[in-house]
């Protein structure tokens, strides 16, 4: 019977193939007769689909779906072992379309090493409603990591309130990966018993379990054991600390402060930072006061640690709270508040500090003066000058130092009068301050006063201070020094850094523009090899030009190293508001030091041109590797994704969002070392700015921009996560998800979020990796990975 079935099936398949059109009436009749042969036709059909076109395959699959039952299932299952990719796809399609067989037979296939596990998982996913959570859990533990992750994803889709007990009972198992998946599923159920079960995992020795538990708790409402979670702020793992911050902040427990005290006293700096981060979200003046009162009797080093953490890391909420405490009745609280403000250097504190200069406690008064000097606000000058004329000898040195730091010439005359005071400390401080305060017009008279003091004293300290002051004034303002400076100015306008830690950016930019008016503007396009810029940078070659600027390779002749100069185009540099934001962003960007990030050195002004100097990295762009619409090698693509996520995680921790991640901004050398470039450029626009600006350039690249960025909404780290998702999509499929039409059309497609599944474009892609791409590219940023570290961990599991 089998022999005749084979012959008949083979003849019918031959007829169908000869007709060349599966929709032809004769072909349709042949398909019907083929189906009537029954199980005996299945092997020949499986052979046929390996070479059939899409239309023929659809008809064959329809027959297979009709023929599958418990008896024929093993025959089809063999197609998942011996078949070609087309055969495997056809069998999967047929088994997905039919329910006329025992679903447990699919589970049994997972135990066969030779079977295509990814195909079986896809069938199970399609047939998921035929399984129970318990059934799938029983088999998930025995699978390899990819299949295990896929099964737990299906379990997550099936899980409901009735399965919570089953899931929580398995939360303490030995399989770490399974436990993490279970914790992730449980995070969807905002119930007291789930929260309680998750909190039992916070002391687990495995940091991944602690991270997962805290991540789940951060998504839930309801009470948590705040004391326990606050202890996690002292965890040795930084990611655990960060997740603990989220949970504590979300809980909003009124008793949080009493649990934070020990954290803020901890020897570990990162623990103290975590405590302050909580205060930045929840802290009030009452909370800060409570903290300061509790620690005031502790060892001075403990007090210093806590105050130092609050001062260095405290955000606006902490500063506002501390400002209120400047007037507190408790002298110790006032002192601690002043110490904190000394480190915050927050302009909002100026008025309160001015009032504190009159505090009855000399310590508070003196440290308030110091804080005003650190802030450097001109508003403090009148009050500080008034202090110079007072009889408060204890506070005079502090007032002199503060005026020297602020640098207002109004203080010169009253400062000179202090040179007649008998107190040595006051004289020395006044001499040092005058050197800072004077300008070229007053330099001669100030020098004479200082020389007079030095020549009429027998005190060696005062004499030495006077000698050093005169030398410094001569170096700055002598006729020889002035002539040398004028000559240098005529020969070449020196580069002017704008990445200063202190100073008014408006004034710096204004001075730079004024100098440009008196010097010949540099024509970057006309540079020739060997030409020296600013007496330092030897031009080698032009590398490229983009919307934001022209990139050239130079050699720094001072340090004898090559570097990149990126000259900003006029449409960027002439936008005053953008320039301010640009400088602000680059100040932070250049602090990023990581092997996966190009190092920014400086921001210079060169003869009418602004330029960024940065690390030279012989390389090619990631875009150069994605060619001919072919996917990259999977392992390489995933590793590139991991490297980008790693570098971006460091940037995000420094408070920098790239906003223009794309293959052109990812550089790779011959050893596959990857570095991200162009931080600060796209970030220069302010939140809410329209993307097509008045100057006509697009901030961000339409093919890779996050929907919220396109819509002009607030942008955070998750915009970079979206862009990385798009880059991954292109690496693993060979094509970007959206590319048809003009820029506006592409941007609209991102907002709609209807890209083809990466699996549809590249069927050989492992589903877990495809899921990572899809999650990263979610239109709703709340559904994406919430951090680069989270995305990196997912990619590492997929590697």
Report the principal-axis shape. Answer: elongated
CATH architecture of the largest domain: Orthogonal Bundle
User: Which spans have pLDDT < 50 for at least 5 consecutive residues?
Assistant: 484-496, 682-698
Helical content class: 55-70%
Query: What is the number of strand segments?
Result: 9
Mean pLDDT: 82
Instruction: Give me the CATH superfamily of the largest domain.
Output: Transferase(Phosphotransferase) domain 1
Strand order, main sheet: write it out: 1-2-3-4-6-5
What's the total helix number?
A: 41
Describe the biggest sheet?
A: 6 strands, antiparallel
Which percent band covers the strand fraction?
5-15%
Distance between the termini: 49 Å
Work out the radius of gyration.
35 Å
Task: Give the C-level CATH assignment of the largest domain.
Answer: Mainly Alpha
Q: Under CATH, the topology of the largest domain is which?
A: Transferase(Phosphotransferase), domain 1
Structural class: alpha+beta
GO molecular function, one term: protein serine/threonine kinase activity
Binding site for ATP: 566
Protein name: non-specific serine/threonine protein kinase
Domain Protein kinase: 537-799
Summarize it.
InterPro entries: ARM-like, ARM-type_fold, Atg1-like, Kinase-like_dom_sf, PBS_lyase_HEAT, Prot_kinase_dom, Protein_kinase_ATP_BS, Ser/Thr_kinase_AS. With 799 residues, the chain is α+β, with helices and mostly antiparallel strands.
């Amino acid at each position: 019977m089998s022999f005749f079935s084979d012959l008949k099936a083979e003849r019918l398949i031959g007829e169908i193939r000869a007709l060349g059109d599966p929709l032809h009436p004769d072909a349709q009749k042949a398909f019907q007769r083929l189906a009537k042969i029954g199980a005996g036709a299945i092997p020949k059909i499986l052979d046929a689909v390996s070479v059939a076109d899409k239309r023929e395959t659809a008809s064959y699959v329809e027959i297979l779906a009709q023929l599958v039952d418990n008896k024929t299932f093993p025959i089809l299952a063999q197609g998942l072992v011996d078949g070609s990719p087309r055969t495997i796809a056809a069998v999967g399609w047929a088994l997905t379309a039919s329910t006329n067989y025992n679903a447990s037979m699919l589970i049994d296939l997972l135990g066969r090493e030779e079977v295509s596990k990814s195909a079986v998982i896809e069938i199970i996913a399609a047939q998921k409603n035929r399984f129970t959570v318990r059934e799938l859990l029983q088999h998930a533990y025995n699978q390899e990591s990819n299949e295990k992750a896929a099964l737990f994803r299906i379990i997550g889709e099936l899980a409901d309130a009735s399965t919570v007990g089953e899931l929580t009972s398995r939360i303490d198992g030995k399989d770490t990966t399974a436990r993490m998946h279970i914790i992730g599923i449980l995070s969807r159920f905002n119930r007291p018993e789930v929260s309680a079960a998750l909190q039992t995992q916070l002391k687990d020795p495995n940091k991944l379990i602690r991270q997962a538990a805290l991540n789940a708790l951060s998504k839930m409402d309801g009470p948590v054991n705040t004391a326990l979670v606050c202890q996690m702020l002292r965890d040795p793992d930084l990611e655990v600390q960060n997740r603990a911050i989220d949970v504590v902040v979300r809980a909003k427990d009124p008793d949080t402060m009493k649990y934070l005290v020990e954290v803020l006293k901890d020897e570990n700096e990162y623990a103290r930072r975590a405590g302050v981060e909580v205060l930045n979200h929840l802290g009030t003046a009452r909370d800060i006061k409570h903290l300061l009162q509790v620690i005031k009797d502790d060892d001075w080093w403990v007090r210093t640690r806590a105050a130092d953490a609050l001062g260095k890391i405290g955000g606006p909420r902490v500063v506002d709270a501390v400002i209120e405490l400047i007037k507190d009745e408790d002298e110790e609280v006032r002192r601690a508040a002043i110490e904190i403000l000394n480190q915050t250097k927050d302009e909002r504190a100026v008025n309160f500090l001015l009032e504190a200069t009159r505090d009855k406690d000399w310590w508070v008064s003196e440290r308030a003066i110091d804080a005003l000097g650190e802030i450097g606000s001109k508003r403090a000058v009148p009050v500080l000058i008034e202090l110079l004329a007072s009889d408060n000898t204890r506070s005079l040195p502090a007032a002199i130092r503060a005026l020297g730091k602020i640098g207002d010439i109004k203080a010169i005359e009253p400062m000179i009068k202090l040179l007649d005071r008998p107190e040595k400390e006051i004289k020395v401080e006044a001499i040092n301050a005058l050197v800072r305060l004077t300008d070229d017009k007053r330099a001669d008279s100030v020098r004479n006063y200082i020389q007079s003091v030095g020549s009429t004293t027998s005190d060696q300290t005062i004499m030495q201070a006077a000698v050093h002051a005169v030398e410094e004034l001569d170096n700055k303002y002598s006729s020889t020094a002035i002539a040398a400076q004028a000559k240098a100015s005529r020969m070449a306008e020196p580069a002017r850094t704008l990445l200063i830690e202190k100073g008014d950016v408006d004034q710096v930019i204004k001075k730079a523009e004024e100098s440009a008016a008196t010097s010949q503007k540099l024509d970057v396009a006309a540079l020739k090899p060997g030409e020296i810029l600013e007496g330092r940078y030897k031009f080698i070659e032009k590398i490229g030009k983009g919307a934001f600027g022209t990139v050239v390779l130079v050699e720094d002749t001072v340090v004898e190293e090559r570097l990149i100069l990126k000259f900003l185009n006029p449409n960027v540099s002439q936008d005053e508001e953008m320039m301010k934001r640009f400088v602000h962003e680059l100040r932070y960007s250049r602090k990023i030091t990581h092997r996966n990030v190009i190092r920014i050195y400086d921001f210079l002004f060169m003869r009418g041109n602004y330029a960024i100097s940065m690390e030279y990295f012989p390389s090619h762009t990631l875009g150069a590797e994605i060619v001919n619409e072919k996917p990259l090698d999977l392992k390489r693509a995933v590793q590139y994704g991991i490297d980008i996520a790693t570098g971006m995680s460091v940037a995000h921790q420094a408070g920098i969002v790239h906003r223009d991640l794309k293959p052109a901004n990812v550089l790779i050398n011959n050893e596959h070392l990857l570095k991200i470039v162009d931080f600060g450029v796209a970030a220069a626009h302010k939140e809410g700015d329209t993307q097509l600006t008045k100057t006509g350039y697009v901030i961000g690249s339409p093919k890779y921009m996050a929907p919220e960025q396109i819509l002009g909404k607030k942008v955070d780290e998750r915009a970079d996560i979206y862009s990385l998702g798009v880059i991954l999509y292109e690496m693993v499929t060979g094509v970007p998800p959206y590319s048809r039409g003009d820029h506006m059309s592409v941007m609209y497609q991102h907002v709609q979020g209807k890209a083809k599944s990466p699996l549809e474009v590249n069927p050989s892609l492992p589903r877990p990796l495809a899921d990572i791409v899809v999650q990263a590219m979610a239109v709703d940023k709340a559904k994406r990975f919430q951090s680069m570290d989270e995305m990196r961990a997912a990619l590492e599991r997929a590697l």
